[in-house]
Automatic annotation (TrEMBL):
Keywords: Methyltransferase, S-adenosyl-L-methionine, Transferase, Ubiquinone. It catalyses: arsenic triglutathione + 3 [thioredoxin]-dithiol + 3 S-adenosyl-L-methionine = trimethylarsine + 3 [thioredoxin]-disulfide + 3 glutathione + 3 S-adenosyl-L-homocysteine + 3 H(+); arsenic triglutathione + [thioredoxin]-dithiol + S-adenosyl-L-methionine + 2 H2O = methylarsonous acid + [thioredoxin]-disulfide + 3 glutathione + S-adenosyl-L-homocysteine + H(+); arsenic triglutathione + 2 [thioredoxin]-dithiol + 2 S-adenosyl-L-methionine + H2O = dimethylarsinous acid + 2 [thioredoxin]-disulfide + 3 glutathione + 2 S-adenosyl-L-homocysteine + 2 H(+). The gene is ubiE_2. This is Arsenite methyltransferase. It comes from Fundidesulfovibrio magnetotacticus. Residues 100-245 form the Methyltransferase domain. GO terms for biological process: methylation. Coiled coil: none annotated. The lineage of its organism: Bacteria, Pseudomonadati, Thermodesulfobacteriota, Desulfovibrionia, Desulfovibrionales. Belongs to the methyltransferase superfamily. Arsenite methyltransferase family. It is an enzyme of class 2 (transferase). One of its GO terms (molecular function) is arsenite methyltransferase activity. Gene3D superfamilies: Vaccinia Virus protein VP39. Its EC number is 2.1.1.137. Residues 20-43 are annotated as: Disordered. It holds the Pfam family Methyltransf_31.
Length: 284
């Protein structure tokens, strides 16, 4: 089934990540559930990717995926088991330059992996708020926080298009492989702008499009849930950030990532179409 309806896409994404949170094998051919397109694209086993958000339920594979997208062995130490599900496509910490005392909001926090890393950086005087629309993910992240006694992190159930965060509450908005999933990215950036204090910044990693997405890929709801079909072009993302009010909007595709992404979806012609990228901007 092909779908362009935002509600169907959102439901498909929520079902897919609920299964991931429950420990179902990601990319097992069930992604998208009854609303999936039926395409075999991306339906490989855990660890199907080196730079995308397919994830893995196997801790060793998830660790390998995290190292491949830019985390350091030190960052992976002492993480709650299952917080890293290999769902990221980069390492927002590497560009966020977090400082002690800062308040950080993580859009689409999943099992809380990036939140726990951010919590180490901002320390006891800081705070990290993870927002995710999938109840199973929020529950998992809260369990993870309890398991390591992490007191400067909280997880809120909500949509990144309607952030459950007060105006000006955040110093930094981070996100890892999530904005591509939104059907209203302009609204996500407007929300990020609203919750940041003046001088605040965004530091995200995400999948972006290097060219206009062919219609058959764009409409494939399963490829959307797998972080491919919803990717937006660099130029349009930068324009959306500027329209939201940000200064210095910069979207930089990571060298070599397009080839890795294309390789992980052997049944879809993604050559030169998508890449992982870093997204930075400042609220002046
Ligand atoms: C690819 S996973 C990334 C998780 C996490 N950032 C990481 O790197 O481990 C996408 C996550 O974003 C959440 N998500 C997707 N769309 C969302 C939306 N519109 N609002 C809130 N959460 C969303 C999903 O529930 C899922 O947990």
């Amino acid at each position: 089934m092909h779908a362009t309806d935002a509600g169907i896409i959102r439901t498909t994404i929520r079902e897919r990540y609920a299964r991931t949170a429950r420990g179902a094998v990601p990319g097992d051919g069930t992604a998208g559930g009854s609303t999936a397109s039926g395409s075999s694209a991306g339906g490989s086993k855990a660890g199907c990717c080196e730079s995308g958000c397919c994830g893995s339920t196997d801790p060793a594979q998830a660790r390998d995926l995290a190292l491949k997208v830019g985390y350091t062995p030190k960052e992976l130490q002492d993480m709650p088991e299952g917080a890293n599900m290999g769902l990221g496509c980069g390492n927002p910490q590497a560009i966020a330059a977090l400082r002690p005392g800062e308040t950080v909001v993580d859009l689409g926090s999943g099992g809380g992996f990036d939140c726990f890393l951010a919590a180490r950086q901002v320390g006891d005087a800081g705070h990290v708020i993870g927002v995710d629309m999938t109840p199973e993910m929020v529950e998992k992240a809260r369990r993870n926080a309890r398991s390591i006694g992490c007191a400067n992190v909280s997880f809120r159930l909500g949509e990144i298009e309607h952030l459950p965060v007060a105006d000006g509450e955040a110093d930094v908005v981070i996100s890892n492989c999530v904005v591509n999933l939104s059907t209203d990215k302009a609204r996500v950036f407007r929300e990020a702008f609203r919750v940041l204090r003046p001088g605040g910044r965004i530091a995200m990693t995400d999948i972006v499009a290097l060219a206009d997405m062919p219609g058959d890929i764009r409409r494939d709801v399963r490829l959307h849930a797998e972080c491919v079909a919803g990717a937006e072009t660099v130029g349009r993302l930068e324009a959306m950030l500027a329209d939201a009010g940000f200064a210095g909007a910069c979207v930089r595709p990571s060298p070599g990532s397009a080839e890795k992404l294309a390789a992980m979806f052997p049944n879809v012609d993604l050559k030169g179409l998508v890449a992982s990228a870093v997204i930075e901007a400042v609220k002046r």
